[in-house]
Amino acid sequence: MPRARAGTCRDCQALIRWVPTANTRRAIPLDFEPTDDGRVVVTDEGYAIVFGSHDEALARAQRLLTIPLTYKAHHASCPRYHSRAHAGREEYPSLF
Ligand SMILES: [Zn+2]
């Protein structure tokens, strides 16, 4: 993955990788480690392709890659992303 860049999530400090998407070339944050239920495939050229389901992603990974790995977008797994995104829009902070 020549174009991937390692980084750290500013919300939960998890290790992530920034990978440009095949469509827009804009980098999206993925969990650093591959996962069994990811919807994102990273091509040998180092581009991310996002699918609607894990099954689709896995099918494509199996056709495209020697080792069929899938990744999860970090905002899907980040424990703090949602609370932060939410807090910005809410008028009153949640007590929970
Ligand atoms: Zn995070």
How would you classify the helix and strand content by structural class?
A: alpha+beta
Question: What gap, in angstroms, lies between the N and C termini?
Answer: 40 Å
Number of domains: 1
Using only CA atoms, what is the Rg? 15 Å
Oligomer: single chain
Helix/strand order: EEEEEHHH
Ligand inventory: zinc ion
Total helices: the number is: 3
Report the major sheet.
3 strands, antiparallel
Low-confidence stretches are: 89-96
Mean pLDDT score: 86
* Helix fraction bin: 25-40%
User: Strand order of the main beta sheet, please?
Assistant: 1-2-3
From the spread of the alpha carbons, the general shape counts as globular
Percent strand equals 15-25%
Short description:
Helices cover 25% and strands 22% of the residues. The chain has 96 residues and is of the alpha+beta class.
Polypeptide structure, described:
With 96 residues, the protein is α+β, with helices and mostly antiparallel strands. The chain has one domain (5-89). The chain is built from 3 helices and 5 strands, in the order βββββααα. It has helices at residues 54-64, 74-77, 81-89, and strands at residues 5-8, 15-20, 27-31, 40-42, 48-50. Strands 1-2-3 form a 3-stranded antiparallel beta sheet. Strands 4-5 form a two-stranded antiparallel sheet. Strand 1 and strand 2 form a beta hairpin. It is globular and about 35 Å long. The relative contact order is 0.20. The structure holds zinc ion. Residues 9, 11-12, 14, 74, 78, 80-81 line the site of zinc ion (ZN).
